[in-house]
Amino acid sequence: MEMVILALRGYLLFTIVIIVIYFIRHYVFTLNRLFGEQRIYYHDIIDSDLKTISVLVPMHNEEKVATNILDLLVQSDYSKDDIEIIPINDFSADKTQEILDNYASRYPYIKPLHRYTGDRGKPAALNAAIRIATGEIIIVFDADYLPPKDILKSIAVCFNDPEVGAVMGRVIPINTRQNILTRLLDLERTGGYQVDQQARYNLRLMPQYGGTVGGFRRKVVDDLGGFNTKILAEDTELTYRLSINGWKVLYANRAECYEEVPEKWDARARQIRRWSRGHNGVMFRYCLPLLSSPYLSFREKIDGMLLLQVYCVPVILLTGLMNSLALFFLGEMEMFSGVFFLIFIGAYSNFGNFAPFYQVGTACLLDGAAQRILLLPFLLFNFFFNMWYITKGFVDACIDVVTWRKTKWQKTERFRNGANKESVS
Amino acid sequence: MNKEAKAIILYHRSYRKIAGSMWDFFLQFLLIAVPLSLVIVFFYPQITQTVCVIARALLAPYYPDDTLRIIQIPFIMGPTSILDLPSKYPSVLFCTINALVSLILLVLLPAVKNAKHLYIFVIVILFINFMSSLFFMFFPYRFPYEVVDYSEFYMKQQINIWFFVPIIMGLAILPLPSDLTSKSATLLITFCYSLVFGATRYVVFLFILTKASLLYMAVLFFVLGSLVDFIYIVGIYSVHVTRLAKKMKGDFASWKWLY
Amino acid sequence: MLILACTLLVLLLILPFVPGTRELIKRRDAAPLYINIDYHKDPRYFAVSCKKLFLGSLKTPITVGEVRDVMLSKEEKVQIVGTVHVPAGSVIENILYVVQHLESETNVSFEKEIYVRGTARIGENNRLQALACDGDIHLMKGTKFFRWLDAEGSITVEGPCALGVGATCSGMLSLTRQCTFMKLYGFPVSVNVDPALLREDDTLGGESVIASGSLPLRDCSAIPASSRLNCDIISSKSMTIGEHAVIQGHIKTHGNLAIGAHVTIVGNIFAEGNIEIGLQSHVMGTIFSQARVLLKQGVRVGAKNRIKSVIGKKSVALEDNVIVYGFIMTEGMGVVV
């Protein structure tokens, strides 16, 4: 029994150490974004030598949103001689195919890829498209995104830097007016991009490629074997695969694009569970390769590890809570009086919603937003929600590893009703 | 940099930063936040004594004479006062009802489609309540605490919370470019809020434990304990930052660009 | 009293949610952050936008000599003139629309924007907000721009001037010593270079300046003089490149980069630290630094048929006879030394 209590106490202290580490990390990022020197992205570069690009847009039953993104891509200011747009119709059962064929008939640089055989899902779809793409640079958008005119140039220009393997832009929710969920997710995104990603870019750590509003070098990814179809978080996996092989991932805070966030809690639950499952799958695969990469600095490795484990933290918190309950019923409450509070300081401040409350507040301030900051207390409920579904995703990831279970791609539900781009303004 | 020209052409949000420095922040932290925490360090015996006196006065009508006692227990830099009250153990029936209700709700709630984020919070409460009910059903004599133990741990935890609240709030708002008066006021308000909140919760929770039963100790401690302190910290922070954001919208002097 | 305590506790729990609840109901800040979907990056954006606004507001036929009230970003007075010669010491308070040519003497202050359809000759020590010109612009020494200037033709600066946030043109942008700037855009931008002497062979043939497919050279702190390299160079530390080296590839360093004299780089240069390009070197690519860029005497960047950029976040300094085909930008101080 004493050994059990010792182990439980040890785990509690471990939980607190993890919380403190992440607290420090997030706080350093916040201070850096507020006061520190900002590293500029390459969007101001004007260069007549444009690289050829292939824009991939994976689509599965996207009839509600397909026309919006294609209309905007067609209006892009990228030279049409240097661009091809490959919408990937991935086993769609609705009118997606017809819509894509219609655009292909009108624009010679739109070359749809229709897939009704082989593996389903985004990674497989991207791999199929990469095989036929001719551009030096691949830029990926999810189907619900609304890319501005200049974003292709903004993304492509960074590949003038020979060290850059991938770039990620900033994602901004467009459907914030819908309900409390969309507003809270908007806060989450704001904190995550405006502060967290930008700070990681400033400090030359490891910004994350998010799989959309971003691009990568086609040849590099092709040489590295394409996307891993066994992993749901193919974007995170690419981030690490590029990084350990000497390529840098940039974050372009200036390359902003609208996206649609889930409007229903169960859609959000499925999304976050999938992210957790995918991200933790990447964690299992890349912990050791990350540490042994000769191309990464010590700081990059440390931050890379912390980033890899970010979807473990809620699991640690939940098990920490269970652990604490066990210690409580075993009569060990004495040690709580001093330290238990720290768990929830760190827990909520670190993982209120993927970005701590002070990070979100700072980001909103920098964005010039005001009243939305008042919604921060509501993130308390997101804390438990996230903790629960991320833990489920972690369990899924563990089962995947142990049983070599094949992952089945799940697309996030769309909510737009086919409104055209004027609804943006 | 051509500040006149830059002032007219507004900074894009992407590389905007604030005018301010780390040294200012550290200095403000030392001069504003730390003293408030030190108030707790040096005066917690008196503060806890006052809380206990108020608690006893509020609870006295509900208990027999001489059952409410203020006792001193040693803590880090001096004794802390706590209230000693008689414990109430739950009956088997009470435990069974609690367990059943918790279990039924635990089973039914996941079927709720809306407000998932709310019901998960409720599920956590129900789960802990369920575990506590089971414990009291099967091991009632092995429950290791009396109300006086809860009282002691609550007060010690509360002292830690009071100590950390100015620190956390200071870390959150002192880097921001609001004026010193506003920051000081916010910190003071938060500090006072935490004192009042901690004292009020103490009274109410002691009443629940002594009149309902010790069964609820786990829930009160784990879910409605220190976590809810965060609500007012974040709430007051959000009001402060919102006011600051409105003020900064037209104020070019507050902003810098890139470095 | 206990009921009061319970009520107080509930109030204290609910109170932090009240402002947020009001915001959820009133939705004062529920709109998504604004992104200009139609934004197209144009170094001459200010001028293009200004002219469009201008001409759009002057809808009815104009009369030379009139002063017209128009609505631009706010209500403004626009003074419409033909060819105008502004005497020394004048203060022009209205927006000026010059249908033909503008010439000003010394110490003139233009309080508002100017749009000249012909050529503009600005005298010594003038003060201007912004100047858009459909012809050529000549600036005499001591002139200061608070915002920008743009010409469809060329811009010639004949003495030290402060060029505001941006000086852009479709033709040549010729500077002299001690000019200060933040953005420059011209074909080319040059410092004390006789246009007649711009090299006829200042073009690049056929292929883009793309490096070969060989693996990059990593963590090399010094490239010896007269080296010939045909690969990218990526270094985590500061680097130097010796004189007369020829590099066919892109360069990236996480430290400072010092390039010697008479070096040819057929590729882009990126550095986290300072970049110094030595005498008479030629860079056929973009130069980008998170710190400072110094282009020494005779450096050429880009070519007649290739627009390239020189960007130094903290400063860009140009010495004599520097030629840059395209865009120069800094968010700090740009100066011709």
Describe the structure.
The complex is a heterotrimer of chains A (425), B (259) and C (337). Chain A is α/β, with parallel strands linked by helices and 425 residues long. In chain A, 52% of the residues lie in helices and 11% in strands. Chain A has a domain at 1-42 and 161-408. In chain A, helix 11 runs antiparallel to helix 12 and helix 11 crosses helix 14. The radius of gyration of chain A is 22 Å and the shape is globular. The model of chain A is unreliable at 418-425 (pLDDT under 50). Chain B is 66% helix and 8% strand. The mean pLDDT of chain B is 88. In chain B, helix 2 (22-59) packs parallel to helix 6 and helix 5 (147-173) packs parallel to helix 8. Chain B has 259 residues and is mostly helical. Chain B has 8 helices and 4 strands; from the N terminus they run αβαββααααααβ. In chain B, the strands form 2 sheets. Chain B has a two-stranded antiparallel ribbon with strand order 1-4. In chain B, a hairpin with a 2-residue loop joins strand 2 and strand 3 (78-84). Chain C has a 32-stranded mixed beta sheet that branches. Chain C has a two-stranded parallel ribbon with strand order 4-7. At the A-B interface, helix 1, helix 6, strand 7, helix 9 and helix 11 of A face strand 1, helix 4, helix 5, helix 7 and helix 8 of B.
| Distance between the first and last residues' Cα of chain B | 11 Å
Shape call of chain C: flat
**What portion of residues of chain C belong to β-strands?**
35-45%
- Oligomeric grouping of the chains: heterotrimer
* Main sheet characteristics of chain C: 32 strands, mixed
Sheet of most strands of chain B: 2 strands, antiparallel
Strand content range of chain B: 5-15%
| Number of distinct helices of chain C | 3
Physical arrangement of strands within the biggest beta sheet of chain B: 1-4
Number of helices of chain B: 8
Number of domains of chain B: 2
Report how far apart the termini of chain C are. 79 Å
Structural classification of chain B: mainly alpha
| DSSP strand count of chain C | 34
Q: Largest interface: which pair?
A: A-B, 66 and 63 residues
Mean pLDDT of chain B: 88
Q: Kindly state the percentage of residues in helix of chain B.
A: 55-70%
Q: Please tell me what the overall shape of chain B is.
A: flat
| Rg of chain B (CA only) | 24 Å
- What's the SSE pattern of chain B? HEHEEHHHHHHE
Mean pLDDT of chain C: 91
